[in-house]
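User: Just a sanity check before I run the rest of the batch. Below are the structure tokens for the first item. I only need the designed sequence back.
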């Protein structure tokens, strides 16, 4: 799963990277340690079919939530949606059908499991080697509270990890090729089989690099570029 990520980019840089015309009503600060239920940016299709940036909270609110507390609790259990079942799960299926998005990130963190060759719970930072932003495939929705307040939220989609990333954790975020972005964001595309076809990517880890980092990221109190500094593990655990 993906439980923390970083976005250290100006809003103008995000708009340029994703060719967006619409901008959000408010700007979020640079953040090196984004946690579940926190506000994040998403890229979605506007009514005129142009891309726009919106602010939502991370973790899709279950549509049947009856109170604000229930909505908040449901978010923490729905930060990730599995690509294999996202079209079936009640929390996710309606958003997957017509409310898909991209979630920009500078990089994300993952903790080694006992499945791979690294020490269990060793944190790693994963990003693009070409310095471009990551684009998590995601879904979003709007929940209306009993008081009539609209709360926007989103979840990112994960898939089986491949290659060297599978040595860290068995799951990774789903990344779509740039040429599929418009189709993915198109709310008029509601045929589930065709949407699922978009998630079949030949080389899902293309362009990604990773390295071990200090456990500073484990605490949400820590925030800054020092979180992604390379930690030398030494042989035989070194990556290079």
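Assistant: Here's the designed sequence for the first item:
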């Amino acid at each position: 799963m993906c439980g923390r990520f970083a976005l250290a980019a100006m809003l103008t840089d995000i708009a340029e990277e994703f060719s967006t015309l619409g901008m959000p009503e408010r700007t979020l600060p640079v953040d090196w340690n984004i946690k579940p239920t926190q506000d994040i940016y998403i890229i979605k299709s506007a009514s005129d079919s142009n891309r726009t940036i919106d602010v939502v909270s991370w973790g899709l609110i279950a549509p049947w939530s009856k109170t604000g507390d229930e909505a908040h609790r449901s978010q923490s259990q729905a930060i990730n949606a599995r690509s294999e079942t996202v079209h079936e799960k009640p929390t996710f299926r309606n958003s997957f059908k017509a409310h898909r998005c991209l979630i920009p990130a500078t990089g994300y963190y993952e903790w080694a499991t006992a499945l791979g060759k690294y020490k269990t719970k060793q944190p790693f930072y994963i990003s693009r080697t070409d310095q471009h932003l990551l684009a998590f495939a995601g879904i979003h929705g709007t929940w209306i509270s009993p008081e009539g307040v609209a709360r926007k939220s989103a979840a990112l989609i994960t898939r089986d990890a491949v290659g060297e990333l599978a040595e860290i954790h068995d799951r990774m975020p789903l990344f779509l090729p740039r040429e599929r972005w418009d189709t993915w964001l198109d709310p008029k595309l509601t045929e589930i089989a065709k949407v699922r076809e978009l998630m079949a990517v030949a080389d899902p880890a293309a362009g990604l690099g990773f390295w071990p980092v200090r456990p500073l990221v484990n605490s949400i109190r820590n925030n800054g570029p020092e979180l992604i500094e390379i930690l030398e593990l030494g042989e035989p655990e070194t990556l290079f």
